[in-house]
Design brief:
homodimer; 745 residues; mainly beta; 7-stranded mixed beta sheet; 6-stranded antiparallel beta sheet; 11 helices; 14% helix; elongated
Chain lengths: 745, 745
C-alpha cells in the first residue's frame, strides 16, 4: 500500500460502519417541506390581521367595517342543529353536526349587515398548517357570487344578527374544527381571535345520500348509529349465549377519545374524510400491536396486570382509560372486546356498524382453506401434531359504506376485524372487505378478503399419519367452519341470522362456483377424493350446567348392508374459546358393533369431578371428538361436538321510582354453588344512561355463601336501558346478570 | 349504600383500572396451541429413534438393517447440482438448489441397497415443530409405490452407494432445510443424527415453468437473477446520471442475511413459498420503520451517526452489518439504497428483479392525482403555502412473478417499493402491484396500486390564491410527473426506457380511458376546465458543472395575433432530490414584450456565488420555476426546469496482471476544484469479486490539492467486473469514479 499524501492529509483508520448510539428520530428536513398534518389539534397560527400591503401611516378608522360582537353556534341539544343532525345524544358542550347537511350559526355584528358592500367569510380550520387544497382550511362565503367547496347562504337577518346556513362537503375531513369569522377590509383581512367555544365537530352522515356512508333505512340507522346498547353472541352455534354491552358512544369523553385514537395513530388528516381509510386505520389502532393502540390481547388466563376480558360490560371505561392516560394500551381484550370497542368508535364517528359473531371461525388462517387435524394410524387424534385450532366463535365488525375504490356492486356492509391475526404476515389490521365480494368468492379486491373468506369457509381436513410419517387425508368436513353468523336484530334484543350474507346454501350450485372462484384466486383447498361413507357417527347436543355430571350420547348409523365393527376413540378436552386445548379430561375407547342398516346410541357418562377443575382454570368449553376406524374397511369416521357449560347467573333487581333524578336502588345477588371458596371476587355493575360503573371486591365468598350488594343511583336520562352486572374471579368468570329498566321524564 | 355481607367478606376499594406496570409480552397460552413457526432456525427435536411400540427385551441386532455411513450432498460449485441449478456463484459451503428441479445426493450404506426389502426416506425439516401438513417436514421416498409431495427416485446404485434424485414441490418453502435419512425397521424408525453439514438451501427457480417466478427469457434471467453488478439511474430525465452498484447477492453471508431478514420480521414459514408474500414482507423489512428492518432513512444532510446514503457503493456491507449486529438497523438510506438492497434480497433468493427509476415522481401522494403549487394573486409561487413536493426521481423495484391471487393477465413484472411513504396511512410497505394493472388503470387489485399509479400519473395543479384566501386552479400540467421510467439494459450497461410499460402515449385515446378508469376507482383529478393558452414559456435545458456561472434561457412563444406583455417571476431554488426546497438563490422579475406570433429568448445569468454554498449544503439540484401573468388577459403561464449540477469525478485506474490470484493495484485520484478546504473526507473503493471494500479518511484536502491513493489486491474471481470508488464529506458528496476490469482465469 502506498500513499502519495500532501503534507496536510493524514490517513486515519476507516470509520466504524455500525454506530453504537443513534438518536431515535431523524429530522424531516429534506424529506418533507413541513411535518405532515396527522393530528387534529388545531394550530394557533391563523393570523388576526392579514394586511394586503404595507399599511400607510394613519389608518382610517376600521370601525366603519363589520366588527363581530358575538357568535352563537346554536349548539344546545334541543336546538335545531343537533336535533336535525341526530347529534343531540352526545354528552358534549360543543356543536356537533354531520357533513353534507345544512347547519346554522348566528353572528351578531356591530351594525346591520349590508350584503353588497360587506364581505366576510366563516372560516373552518383543522390541524396544523391549514390549507385549502388539503381540505384543512375552508372559507365559507354567504354570497351567491362566490362559493368555496362548502356552501354558505344568509338564511335570515334581524337587526345586527345574521343567521348563516352552512353545508359542508360530503367528503370533508371528520374531526373537530376551529372557527373564525374573517371580514375583508380594503387594507386586509380582520379575523376574530381563536375561541375554542366556537369549535365544531363534523361527523359522517348516514342520513345524507351524498355521503359515502349513506344508509337508506331509518331503523338500521337508529340501531347501527344511534343505539348505545347492544347484544354480543358467543358460546356454540347450537347453544348460543348472549352478553349485553354498553357501547356508550355518546358518553362524555368518548368522541374526543375517538379523535385521539386517530391522532395517536398518526393518521393524516387528509385521509379522515374517507370511511374506507378510517375504518382500516382503526382496525389497526384498536389493537395495541405495532402502534400502541387501545387494547392488549390476552387469552392466557393470567390477567393480573389488567381487567379480565370477560369482566368488562362496556366500552366507555376502556376508551376513557386509553385517552386519559395519553394512549397507554388497556388490558385485556379478547375478540368480542376488540369488536365492541371498535363498534363504539365507528358509531361515534357516524359510520353505521354492528358486531357479528361467526361460529366455528378459522381465525389463524393463511388464506388457505385447510384446518388440519392429525390422526395416528389407529385413527386417534394426535394432539402433539395437531397445531391448527378453530375458534369456537369469533366476533368482528361490519360497517356500512360505498366502495368507490372497487368496481360496482361491492358497496354496503364491509368486514373489519381488529383482533390481531398472527399467521398472515404480521397483519394486525383487517378490512374493510366487502361482504358481497366474500359471498361471491371475489377475494381479489382489497382489503384482506382471502382471510375473511377462509374464516367462514375453511374445510377441516383429517389426516391419517402412517408409521413412516406420511400423511394422507382421510376425511374432509366442509360444513364445520362458518356454521352460523349472527348479529343483533334491529331495535330489539332478538337474533338475526346473517349466514346467507356470507355464504350460499350448503351444497348449492352457487356455493360450488364460489369455492372454485376462490380457488382460482389462490385459496387452496384439499382436493383428495375420498370414498363415500358407510358409517356415520354424530355426537348429540347437550345443555349442561357447571358442576353437573351428564351423559354424552353418540349416534351411530350403518348405511351399508353388512355388519360392521368400529373401534372408537372418544376424547373430551377442555378448550379455550380459541379452540386451543388445555387438558384432556375424558378418554374412552368403546368398540361398537352395528348390524346392517342399524342406528344405535352409545352413552358416555361425564362426571363433574373429571372436568370441573380444569374447566374452571380455563373458563372455556368441553370439546368432544370421536374418531375411529371401521375394522373391515379401514375407513375413518369422525364426529365433533362443542359442549357449552353454563355458568351460574347473577340476579339483578332495580327498585324505586323510575324517573329522571329520582332516587333508585340496584341490588346484585349471587350464591356460590360450589364446594370451594371463591377468592378476590370483583363484581361490576353498569347502567347506561342511568348509573355509572360501580365495582366492589369481595375477599372471599365461601362454599354455599351468598352476597347481596345494593347501590343507590339517580337516572340521568329517560328511555329504555339495562342494568348489567358481571362477577369475576380467578376461579370463576363470565357470571352475568341483567334487568331491563325504563325511565320516564 | 347497604351491604348484606357474610362475616368473611370485606368490601375493599375498587381495583385500579389502569395498571402502572405490565410485562411486555403476554404468554401465547390459550391463544395458540404452540408458538408460531416464524423462524428458519432448525429445531433439534427430530428424534433419533421412533419406536413403533414398546420394544421387547433383547432386541435382535439392528445391524441387519440399512445403516447410513455417509451422505455426499454433491455440493461443490463445479459439480452437477450447483451447475444445473445456477447456484454455483454463491460463496457458500452448503448445497444450494432451486425448487421444482431435480438434484442428487449420494448415500453410502453399510451394504448394498435392496429395493424391495429396504425402506428408507430422505427427510427435510425447516424451523421449529416441523409438520408435513405445513410443508415444514417432508419425507422423500425413493420408491415408485409411495411418493410424498416431493418426488424421489433412485438414479443409480453402485456397491453400497445409492444416488437419489429429489424434486421439491414448485411452491415449497424457500429457506435452509436440515436433512435426515430415516430407515424403517420392524421396531421403529432409525434416523441419522442431526448434521448441519448436510443442510441444504432451497430457492425460487425462474428456470422452472412450474415455479410462480418462472421467467421465460434466458438473458433476462442472467441479468435479473445472476448479475451482481448494476447501474442505477438518477438526476434529471433530460440529464440522466448513472451510479454503479454492487448488489453482491452471491457474496459470503448474504444468503443467510436474507433468511435472517425474514426471521427478524417474524414471517411465518408457511408463507415463505409464495413470492407475492415474500416480496411484500420484504418491502416492509428493508426499511426500519415499525419493525427494526434493515435501513434507516435520512434526507436531512446530518449523517453523523451513520454512513451518508450517497457514500455506499453496494449492498454487501449493509446486509452484513445488519445480520452481524443481529438486526440493528443500518444508517443511512435514501430511495436508491432501499431499492438496491431490496434488489439484492430478491435476486439472492431467486426472484428475478431490477431497480427502476421514475423521473419526477409524486412519492408522497395519498392516492389522489394532484400535486399542488400555490401562486399568489400576482402569479408568484407562494412557497409558504406550497407543501407538496415532487421527487426529482424515485427508485423502486420490479420483480417478476405470476399473480394467482388476481384475475388473469396481471402476472409478470410487479412494483415493490421499500422507501417509506408517509401520507398513506402509515404505509411502510408497498406492493407487489402489477405493472400491467397500473398501465390499464385497474388500480383496484392488491397491493397498493393507487399509490404507484399516482407516482407516475399525478397532475401538477397550479392554484391562484386570491386576497381573501380562496384558491382557483389556473393551470394543470399533466405531463410533468412520470416523465420517464428507466432501468438498466439486459447484460450491458445501457439504458432501457420502460415508460411505455407504465403509461400509454401522452394524449392517446387509451391514456384518456385509463385515467377515467382510475378516477372511477377513486383516484381524484383536478377537473377544472381552463382556457387554452395564447402564450407558452419554456426553460431550456442546461448542463452545468459544479462551480460554474451559467446562463439560464427562457423561450417565450406568442401564438396569438395580438401584442402581449408578460410580468414574469423567475425563482431558482436549491432543492433536495425529494423536491423539498432548501433556499431560494435566484429571483428575478423581468417584463417581456411579445409581438404577434413572436418567439423570443430571455437570458438570466446565474452566478456561482449565488448558488454554490447552498447547493453544497444540500447536495441537491437547482429547480427553476417561472410563473407569470399575461397583462391583457390575466392568464397564468408557467414553466419548470430542474438543472442538475455535475460534480467533479474521481479517476480510478487499475494496473497489474489481470489474472486470478495475481497481484494488482488500484489507484484513486482526486483534485479539490474549490477555493475552500474539504475536511473529514472518506474515500471508499470496492471491486465486486476482486477486492473487498477499502475505505480511507483524509482529515483535510486543501483548495486545489490532490490526493492519490493506491491499494494492492488479488482477484478472487474471473470475469468482467468494475472497480468503483466514491468520495464523501460534509461539504461535497456524490463524487464517483469507476473503471471496467476483466480478469482471466
Amino acid at each position: 500500500m502506498t500513499d502519495q499524501e500532501t503534507p496536510d492529509t493524514v490517513g486515519m483508520p476507516a470509520p466504524p460502519t455500525v454506530p453504537t448510539v443513534r438518536p431515535k428520530r431523524v429530522s424531516h428536513r429534506g424529506r418533507h417541506v413541513a411535518p405532515l398534518a396527522s393530528s387534529n389539534k388545531i394550530d394557533e397560527e391563523v393570523p388576526e390581521f392579514e394586511p394586503f400591503m404595507l399599511l400607510p401611516k394613519g389608518l382610517p378608522p376600521l370601525m366603519e367595517y363589520l366588527d363581530v360582537w358575538d357568535v352563537d353556534m346554536i349548539k344546545q341539544p334541543h336546538e335545531v342543529n343537533k336535533q336535525k343532525h341526530h347529534t343531540n345524544l352526545y354528552s358534549n358542550d360543543y356543536l356537533i353536526v354531520r357533513r353534507a347537511q345544512e347547519f346554522q350559526i348566528k353572528i351578531t355584528f356591530n351594525r346591520a349587515y349590508k350584503p353588497v358592500e360587506d364581505k366576510f367569510a366563516v372560516e373552518f380550520v383543522i390541524g396544523a398548517s391549514p390549507q385549502y387544497s388539503k381540505g384543512t382550511y375552508i372559507p365559507v362565503f354567504p354570497s351567491k357570487e362566490r362559493q368555496s367547496i362548502w356552501r354558505g347562504q344568509v338564511l335570515e337577518t334581524s337587526d345586527n344578527v345574521v343567521t348563516i346556513g352552512i353545508i359542508t362537503a360530503p367528503d370533508c375531513i371528520v374531526g373537530k374544527y376551529g372557527l373564525y369569522i374573517a371580514v375583508v377590509t380594503p387594507y386586509g383581512i380582520r379575523r376574530t381571535r381563536r375561541d375554542p367555544k366556537l369549535d365544531v365537530y363534523i361527523l359522517f352522515n348516514p342520513w345524507s345520500p351524498a355521503d359515502a356512508v349513506f344508509l337508506d333505512d331509518e331503523e338500521e340507522r337508529e340501531e347501527c348509529v344511534l343505539n348505545e346498547l347492544g347484544v354480543i353472541y358467543h358460546g356454540a352455534y347450537d347453544d348460543v349465549a348472549e352478553r349485553s354491552w354498553n357501547y356508550g358512544q355518546f358518553e362524555f369523553g368518548i368522541l374526543d377519545a375517538c379523535l385521539f385514537i386517530m391522532d395517536k395513530g398518526d393518521m393524516p388528516l387528509t385521509n379522515r374524510g374517507d370511511p374506507v381509510k378510517v375504518s382500516r386505520k382503526a382496525s389497526a389502532m384498536v389493537n395495541s400491536r405495532d402502534d400502541e393502540g387501545v387494547l392488549v390481547g390476552n387469552w392466557s388466563g393470567d390477567y393480573m396486570y389488567g381487567v379480565p376480558p370477560t369482566s368488562w360490560t362496556g366500552s366507555v371505561e376502556i376508551l376513557r382509560d386509553y385517552s386519559g392516560s395519553q394512549g397507554m394500551p388497556v388490558g385485556y381484550a379478547q375478540c368480542w372486546v376488540y369488536a365492541a370497542v371498535f363498534n363504539t368508535f365507528l358509531r361515534c364517528l357516524g359510520i353505521p356498524s354492528r358486531v357479528v359473531t361467526n361460529f366455528f371461525s378459522a381465525h389463524d388462517n393463511d388464506g388457505n382453506l385447510k384446518m388440519d387435524i392429525i390422526l395416528d394410524d389407529k385413527g386417534r387424534v394426535d394432539r402433539s401434531r395437531t397445531r391448527d385450532s378453530i375458534w369456537n366463535y369469533h366476533c368482528w365488525n361490519e360497517c356500512f359504506m360505498a366502495r368507490p375504490d372497487l368496481p360496482d356492486g361491492f358497496g354496503g356492509w364491509q368486514v373489519v376485524d381488529a383482533t390481531p391475526q398472527e399467521t398472515s404476515d404480521g397483519m394486525y389490521r383487517c378490512g374493510p372487505a366487502s361482504v358481497a365480494a366474500i359471498k361471491n368468492g371475489q377475494v381479489c379486491y382489497p382489503f384482506d378478503a382471502p382471510f375473511v373468506f377462509a374464516e367462514v369457509n375453511s374445510d377441516v381436513v383429517f389426516y391419517s399419519r402412517s408409521m413412516e410419517g406420511t400423511l394422507q387425508p382421510v376425511k374432509v368436513n366442509t360444513k364445520h367452519v362458518g356454521r352460523m353468523v349472527l348479529t343483533k336484530a334491529v331495535l330489539h334484543d332478538g337474533r338475526r341470522d346473517i349466514t346467507d350474507h356470507y355464504k350460499f346454501p350448503e351444497g348449492s350450485a352457487e356455493e360450488r362456483l364460489v369455492l372454485e372462484k376462490a380457488e382460482e384466486l389462490g385459496c387452496q383447498r384439499e382436493k383428495a377424493s375420498l370414498r363415500p361413507v358407510d358409517i356415520d357417527v354424530e355426537i348429540l347436543a347437550q345443555e349442561v350446567q357447571l358442576g353437573e355430571t351428564f351423559d354424552l350420547e353418540l349416534q351411530f348409523t350403518n348405511h351399508s348392508a353388512q355388519q360392521h365393527v368400529v373401534d372408537i376413540y372418544i376424547s373430551g378436552t377442555v378448550v379455550y374459546y380459541t379452540g386451543v386445548p388445555s387438558a384432556e379430561v375424558v378418554f374412552q375407547t368403546p368398540t361398537v358393533k352395528l348390524d346392517p342398516k342399524q342406528s344405535k346410541k352409545e352413552k358416555l357418562v361425564v362426571r363433574s369431578e373429571a372436568y370441573l377443575k380444569k374447566l374452571l382454570e380455563v373458563q372455556g368449553n368441553l370439546h368432544f371428538i370421536a374418531t375411529g376406524k371401521v375394522k373391515k374397511t379401514g375407513q375413518i369416521i369422525t364426529a365433533m361436538r362443542l359442549v357449552t357449560v353454563h355458568n351460574p347467573r347473577l340476579t339483578v333487581k332495580v327498585a324505586g321510582s323510575p324517573r329522571v333524578d329520582e332516587e333508585m336502588y340496584v341490588t346484585v345477588e349471587f350464591t356460590n354453588p360450589f364446594m370451594f371458596s371463591l377468592e378476590n371476587v370483583y363484581v361490576r355493575v353498569e347502567g347506561p344512561g342511568i348509573m355509572s360503573i360501580q365495582t366492589k371486591q369481595y375477599r372471599i365468598i365461601g362454599p354455599g355463601s351468598s352476597i347481596t350488594w345494593t347501590e343507590n343511583f339517580s337516572p340521568r336520562r329517560a328511555g329504555s336501558t339495562k342494568m348489567m352486572a358481571s362477577l369475576d374471579c380467578a376461579a370463576l368468570r363470565q357470571v352475568y346478570g341483567e334487568t331491563e329498566v325504563t325511565i320516564q321524564e
